[in-house]
Every structure is written in C-alpha cells, then in structure tokens.
Amino acid sequence: MTPVIALVGRPNVGKSTLFNQMTRSRDALVADFPGLTRDRKYGEGNYEGQRFIVIDTGGLTGDELGIDAEMARQSLQAVEEADIVLFLVDGRAGLTAGDELIADHLRRSGKKAHLVVNKTDGQDPDIAASDFYSLGFDSTFLIAASHNRGIRSLLESLLPSEEEREEEDRAERYPGIRIGVVGRPNVGKSTLVNRMLGEERVVVYDMPGTTRDSVYIPYERQGKEYTLIDTAGVRRRKNVREVVEKFSIIKTLQAIDDAHVVILVIDAREGLVDQDLHLIGFVLDAGRSLVIAVNKWDGMDPEERARVKEQVQRRLDFLDYADKHYISALHGSGVGVMYDSVQDCYESAMAKWPTNRLTAILQDAVAQHQPPMVQGRRIKLRYAHQGGSNPPVIVVHGNQVESLPGAYKRYLENTFRKVLKVNGSPIRFEFKGGENPFAGKVDRLTPRQKVKKDNDLKKGRRIKKTRQKSIKR
Fold this sequence. Notes:
Mean pLDDT is 80; it is low at 29-38, 64-69, 203-212 and 238-245. By secondary structure, the chain is an alpha/beta fold. α12 packs across α13 (406-420). Helices cover 38% and strands 21% of the residues.
C-alpha cells in the first residue's frame, strides 16, 4: 500500500518548499508570498525504495471567505484522503491563533497528524519549537525545508522500513504473535510445542534430529492468536555432516528472523553449554525478544537445581532483562506461565513511543550524566525519535555522536529500558550527526573577493619577510 501524506498549515509556512523536497521536483510554485497555492497538488516521492504520494494544499487561516473558503475546502479534502497529515508551522513566527485552530480541527478529524516546525535555520531549533509543544502533538519534527535539513529524518520516521514491510507480509501469512522454539537437538523443543498447543501436533521421539524442517502452527489461546514455530536442533558446526541437517539449520535461523519472540530451550540435566550461548548470540543479533526455558526440571534433587540456577544466573548475567523459566515440558509444570513472558516481550518489541517522550527521557539522562568532552568540545545530544520496531530502534541526533564512547551508549540503553519498561527485547540505538547544508558545495568567490584575497596574501608575505629581516639583524 502506498502511503498518502498531506501537507497542511497556514499560508507561507513552507508547504510547497517541503513538497518539492519530498518529491525531488519543482512542480509546486514557491515564492515569499502568502496564498500562492490554491488547488491541492499531488506528487510522487521515493525514499529508500518506499513510494509515497504527497499532497500540497493551500494555506488555512480559520476565517476564510470567498475564494479562500474554496481553498480551505480543498485542504480539508486532502486531510480526509491522506493516511498521514503533516501540520507545518513557522518556527520564526511562533505560535499563532491560526495554528491553534488548525490543530483543533486535526484533533477532531481523528487523522494521524504530526507537527513539523519549519524554518528552524539560523536559530536554536529547540527554542524555535518550544512554543508549539503546547499544541499537544505526540511527535514533533524540526526541519529547514529550504535547506533540505531534517527531511531525511522526517521520512525515516514516517515511512515503514524494508524490515517493517517484510513484517507486514509475514503478519498476513502467520497471524498473531509468532513464537519460535529453538535449542540444541533433543532438549525437548517438540515436547514443549505439543504442551503449549495442548495436543500431539508434532512428532516426539527420544532421538536427536527427529525434527528436520521448521513447522509453523497457527492456533488460538484465550481469544489471542499465536503461531508456534517448531525448529530443528542446532549442533556445533564440526558435528554437522549430513546435507539435510545443514538445510535444517538454515531453516531454523530463518525461523528466528520470522519470530516475534524466541523461546530458547536448555537441557537442565546437561546445563548451559557453549552452543546455547551461540544460539543466544544469534537471537540477539537478529534483534528478537528472548525467553529462556530450562527444561527437564522434574526429577532433579535440590542441590542439582541450585547448581543449575547459579550457572544460568552467572553465565547469562548480560541477559538480566530476559525472563527465565524452569519447566518440565513432559509434565507441563511451569509451561503456562511462559505465555505472560511472551506477551510482555511482544508488547515491548512492538511498542510505539512519541518523539516528545523519547526526547524528554534523553534530556533527563543527559542532565543526570553529561556526555564526555572530545577535543575540548562537549558532545551534544539534541533529540530522539523511534526508528523501528521488533526490535525497538531509537534514533538519537546530536553533534560529534561518532565519538560517543560505548560506556555512555550502554548508560543510555539502560536508562531507556528502565523508563520505558522494555522487558525481554533488545533495544538498538542509532546515532546521527547534524546535516551540513554546505557539504559538497564549492566555495566560489566573486571577482572582488578574489582581488581582496590576493591582496591579503601579498600583505601577509610582506609582513613575514619584514619579520625575518628584523630577526637576522
């Protein structure tokens, strides 16, 4: 589905300039003259393979008469047609009564609207946007349309990424929460799947390698849809010899990518081994939520249980945010409780947070613990917005972010995880520096500037020679 984006706002706030930047065209007339656009104009844009349609509209004031009333009707029609509405305001003019009237209409329309503060060049963007936070929009973007600044971040936040488009395709094929059950051979994965389903759906046999292919099983439990994915066991590479087993491992890794939540099954009798840690690493690299299930817990004496728990806590200390369950898939003890963890993981992985909340968390974190100095200059982190889900991606914008140390990044991750209450899911951070509007442009001097530059160079050479002569004397 191609998203439709409508641009609305007062006259002369930069809607047509933004339209031209988003469509990479000059189709819309642009001049420092209010009311130039009268009809709604359509254009097509493309950002990293995602097509979208933009609608440019005439300015709204709230007290339209005559031809202005017809222009307003055209603008309101564009709002009805759009999937996403961008409400443009002028960062130099500040908040006006007309802005408040338009914001009130957008709230009543029920459309998904985002506030875009334009003309932030030449001033502090945060100060320029401060007046408009009172309008109460969940997401606010700061741009300078005439300099093409901030537009990439805007499109990146609005449009679904390639991963999100693939997720939509998977959601159509496999409804509900997709739960991948992975682990080494013969740890009880298929037994756990049958226990979660409440029926003997997959073959269970006391022999490694019983499951060859990944089996996708849609079902419903307590009114909620799920898809369980039973996978083949993954052994160490040096032990894999059969061609069929190699393909089974590939299918298992693909199943991890398809899943929302991965349940890693560990054999309590054998304890936590290196291959379990390799599988955990792959799940985290894929960005999937994780639940640890220590199986075959029945029949173990208290000393053995204490030893296994201590080993799991010690070696999985880096996974303190993932729930750990000690279960018996054969007898069903502890299996039902895992659904609560799966639900928490899914909600954390698919959560959507407004830009103003993420920015507030970032500002509080920076106020509590400042980033370090780099070459005498303080690293500045300005604002944050969400860049994706499953796993949650938080994009942080600032200056000198490439010099931000790993320890500070971990501090930010822990802070966001604690405040947002993200459970079971990894959080990914992307740090982006400010866009330089003059990057790649050649500094061309006028003839008068060239003459001045030559004269300054000659003067500098004469002064240098005079100093050298005086030193020799």
